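Bench notes, afternoon.
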Amino acid sequence: MQIQTERLVLRPFILSDANFILDLLNEPSFIQNIGDRGVRTLSDAEKYLENGTISSYAKNGFGLLAVTLNETGEAIGMCGLIKREALEDVDIGYAFLPKFWSKGYAFESAQAVMKQAKENFRLRRVVAIVDPANEGSIRVLEKLGMSFEKMVKLSKDDIDLKLFSISL
């Protein structure tokens, strides 16, 4: 399930990535743009990985992957495919530490994940959900060739999200 690009390695998360997850999920930008996952301790981060990301590998054959720099192995973000009960299609998701924004990493990793979605998982359609105020993420989705389709809510208490889609 590992993917290599020119500058990045995308690999499955392991429990020892809990420190990175704790940092990423508590970034103000993550909470604002994606949501508060309630991960406040190392133990919470391990449970987040175990019950979400790592269990998705076994259940779906895919999930969010750790995005690391090719040269150093430093974790800089996450990117991957997610199967949410609230959505009919598999969606692509990504998040990066702010110091790694505006360097093309989100596009590079998402493009590699889309290729894997088509070639390895034979998906015919992938969607993405995004907060309408998250202009940077919307630009990445449009650069991937995705088009705005409609507004959706993942739950009745959730905000309206933009749903983008692409046929593979």
